[in-house]
Amino acid sequence: MKLSKWLLTATLAVAFAGSAWAQQTTLRIFTGGQQRPDVMRKIADEYSKRNPAVKVEIEVGGATSEAQQQYLSTVLSSKDSALDLVLIDVIRPAQWAAQGWAEPLDAYLGADKAKLLPTYLKAYADANQVNGKLMALPYFADSQFLYYRKDLLEKYKRPVPKTWDEMMETAKLIMDGEKSPQLQGFSTAGAPIEGTVCTYLVPLWGAGGEMTKDGKLNLDTPQARQPFQLYGRMKQAGVLPRNIAEIATDRIRIDFQAGNVIFAMTWGYVWNRAENDADSKVKGKVGVAKLPHDVGGSSATCIGGWQVAVSAFSKNKQEAVKFARYLSSPEVSKMQAIMASHIPVFPSVYKDPEVLKANPWFADALPVVESAKSRPVSPQYPQVSDAVRGSMNAYLAGTKTTDAALADMKNKLAPIYK
Amino acid sequence: MSDAAVPKQKDMSEPMLGALLLLPAVLLLLLVVVYPIGTLFWTSLHSVDNANPQAGEQWVGIANYLRAFDDDRFWHATLQTVIYIVVTVPGALVVGLGLALLANQPFRIQWPVRLSLLLPWALPLVFAGLIFRWFFEYQTGIVNDLLARIGVEPLGWLSDPTLATIAICIAIIWKASSFMALMLLAGLQTIPKSLYEAAEVDGASKWQQFVEITLPMLRPSIFVALIFRTITAIQTFDIPYAMTGGGPGDATETLAMYIHKSTLDFLDFGYGSALAALMFLFSMVATSGYLRYTRRSSGRGAEE
Questions:
Q1: In this complex, do B265 and A70 lie within 8 Å of one another by their Cβ atoms?
Q2: Quick check: A397 and B52 CB within 8 A?
Q3: Is the domain of A125 the same as that of A98?
Q4: What CA–CA distance (Å, rounded) separates B164 from A41?
Q5: B124-137 pLDDT, tens per residue?
Q6: Most buried of the four, A173, A293, B223, B255, by CB within 10 Å?
Q7: Which residues of chain A are within 8 Å of residue B246 when distances are taken between CB atoms?
Q8: Superfamily name and number for B73-297
Q9: Are A98 and B50 within 8 A, CB to CB?
């Protein structure tokens, strides 16, 4: 008697909760910790204000792109529907398409697709399409820049270097003059992490080389040796930090912000931190420019940035796509630029006066971002990345010669590009 | 339980009843041990093409195993794992035994000693790895700071293959010796005091007491501790993962890390499963070797 009464109450309660849920959609989006989840929270709250029926939960995980992907591989390989949207690295769309993890957006956008795509920077419209299918929408752009110490360059009356050799000379001159044992001439990622792939690619491209050509491996060129030789010379000259093989992305920022780095090759987020962090010793002394290149080559940089993908296993795909389109709109691009100095994916946003007021350097950033190139596109990108960063890291640690590092890289890449 | 049930089951023989009572445990074991291991071996005989998952799983026989034998990285990772085993198993035993003997002394206040024994064991492995990574960090690490104080140039602990291996071994020994010590301490406490008193009366020195009484009486505990340590050493993952990520290059990568990379990063489930199956066999051989040795050499005491 008592039990049946209790059961009835419970059933009613569940039914009630169910009907309340039916009106309310809860979208769950995954983002990495470095992609400013706090800013995304504000953006999502704004979205919920306009769409009261949609609530957004933000799941934060993984400090690095690889750590995030490891977690996501587990979730998505088991076809878990817990996530509706995922923020993915620009290197991932091909893999996500091959694995069937991302819902192709073409059918949802319909005729809008043709209108929408030309509004993005071309590199991002391209990066998110795999075999003609739109796999994700760009959230914010990024690329590597040459950060330099304006004050030190002025003190020694040196121009912003255009070539790698000029940069080395200038760094050496300043290091000799400052006589600080802490001061590093040039810093970049050298640890066995994703960023180290770009440490190899940027000088390769700057010398006019390409890693692949018509889908085939193209590493038998003299340019393929150039990155190793360049860093070898830098190491000999004492321009690189001695622990270069330990340096991961955020360590570059920490060292630069502490005033210990003259030149650094790193991503867009550093400017905001170096200019605004309370403990920054380089406020007002930060310069940003195109990366150096070889004599005869031209400046290139790695494309970065984050895309919104809709999970193929989501149970709220319609709502998820709507939210994704909001996240990938000029309005949100502007919000991010002001709140997090995230680089816009729409050329139009770079000229916005409010954006420029928060980020005066964006005026110079546009041509750099437009010169950004994609890392090799492959559904097996994690293996490609492992081969390149492993060789670069071993070379920087001094455990492999140019020949051995390059041979090792080719061996690991050969089965992928057969 | 109720009396009414007894006559119904009168005809059930004792072995039948035994089997029935064992059934839940057997089913549970089948579900959580045999089934996953079976799946692992099954997957290892297939190619799971990660570039084209729609193609499904193709039967490839032992091709994944042949690929492993031809893979330098597999052999290197295996060798590296063997180095960790050979260094850290005896290393942790010696340090752990020292700690256990120390903790077994009649301290007036026991808890600080026991706590400091427990602490490294209670710490998650990745934490231990991160802490030691900070110790050995080039610019801000305490190790290089100490070296600088005695006038030694800072060393690239984590970017030199030999130094990184040493640093990782130190971290593993620190982490593992406290568990060793706990097991050995339990063993020490079962040794009757009267043996030492008798030895004292006979005029045996402390060292003789240690060699003639402590070590033989402790033997079963030492073997159990060694088996545990060897199995965890074969599976070494967290500490090198947190300290070097396998770098420089692949120099400090262990077998478990390579399996993790093949499976979770490269999504090559077939090959990853083959590697995992090889590690499983490796682990089985090592453990059964130990067990056989214990059974032969000490008839009593080791059954536990």
A1: yes
A2: no
A3: yes
A4: 41
A5: 999 999 999 999 99
A6: B255
A7: 192
A8: MetI-like (1.10.3720.10)
A9: yes
